[in-house]
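re: ur question from yesterday

yeah so i grabbed the chain u mentioned. its 106 aa long if i counted rite. heres the sequnce exactly as i have it in my notes:
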Amino acid sequence: MAFIRFVQHNGVTQDVPLTEGSNLMELARASSVPGIDGDCGGSCACGTCHVVVDAAWATKLGPCNEDETRMLSMTPDCQPHSRLACQIVATAAMDGLSVQVPEHQF
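ran it thru and got these structure tokens back, copy pasting raw so excuse formatting
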């Protein structure tokens, strides 16, 4: 079964079934991944689904759009491969994608 791997700040991992067409925030919430709140429901307006994409996958996902870049700029833990999980729509090609969940979401 295809999956997305969420890695917590303390190293605990959780593999979540990949459903094509759903975004990573929806997949995480459906599997109760800690630290992925998605307070705005996926409208790129809160930053509470911040993840850091594994470097090996970062270029495969494409760039952030303007709204996502603006929202991430307000995130204190923003890193070069930071993304909002609500803006990453899962495809079969993402099988095994690994993302880190920061210790805090804002």
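noticed a couple things. DSSP finds three helices and five strands in the chain. also The chain has a mean pLDDT of 95.
anyway ttyl
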